[in-house]
Amino acid sequence: MVKFLIKFILTAVLTYGLAQILPSVRLDGVGSAAILVIVLGLLNATVKPILKIIGFPITVLTLGIFLLIINVIIVKLADYLMSSFAVTGFINALIFSIALSLVTSVVDMIMD
After folding, report:
1. pLDDT digits 0-9 by tens, 38-96
2. How many domains does the chain have?
3. What residues make up the domain containing 20?
4. From the CB of residue 105, how many other CB atoms can be counted at a distance below 10 Å?
């Protein structure tokens, strides 16, 4: 439980840091980053599997690159659901999604 909380807090702080570094991403604070981490987790658990099933043929044809588009859709959905989070444009959502994936991978490697 403690490990999970540390992972969660670290991910929220790093997500807030990413929002500060990337010019077209707005996040209203670390608290909003924590909510964003929860929202993204819920969207990844519920919506992403459905999008993967629907987009499976395209994913196969693009050799998996379409999964990046699915990640952008998840980020834009979070943008739509949260007033304290905004990402302007498709490319910026793609960059944010890739950076966030890298950050959470590093957190997972450190914590495991």
Report:
1. 999 999 999 999 999 999 999 999 999 999 999 999 999 999 999 999 999 999 999 99
2. 1
3. 2-111
4. 10
